[in-house]
Design a protein that fits this description.
The protein has about 100 residues and is mainly α. It folds into two domains: about 40 residues, no CATH class; about 40 residues, no CATH class. The longest helix is centred in the last third of the chain and has 18 residues.
């Protein structure tokens, strides 16, 4: 599945995102699978998860706040404020 031809096939037939960067520049593939342009943009700004021993404590709270924001229950600013408060509680409790 790491082969370029296999990744191209899986992108075109199965909607899988390629692992090979070069395929995001392949104009024929971008024409066949227009969502790859959006995926390329998203992947170019992706970052690693935060490095903290408390990640497992923080992850459910982040998930809840992100989901609430996507459902329209929180604004983006409210979601960030909520997450910040939850993080502070977890980090202060562990100090």
């Amino acid at each position: 599945m790491a082969d370029e031809a296999q990744q191209r096939f899986l992108a075109m037939r199965g909607g899988n995102l390629p692992a090979r960067r070069g395929l995001y520049e392949d104009q024929a593939l971008l024409n066949a699978v227009p969502t790859l342009a959006l995926a390329r943009q998203s992947l170019s700004s992706a970052r690693l998860r935060p490095v903290t021993p408390h990640y497992m404590d923080l992850s459910p709270d982040m998930s809840w706040a992100f989901s609430a924001m996507l459902r329209g229950e929180l604004t983006p600013a409210e979601a960030v404020e909520t997450i910040e408060g939850l993080f502070m509680n977890v980090l202060l409790a562990s100090s």
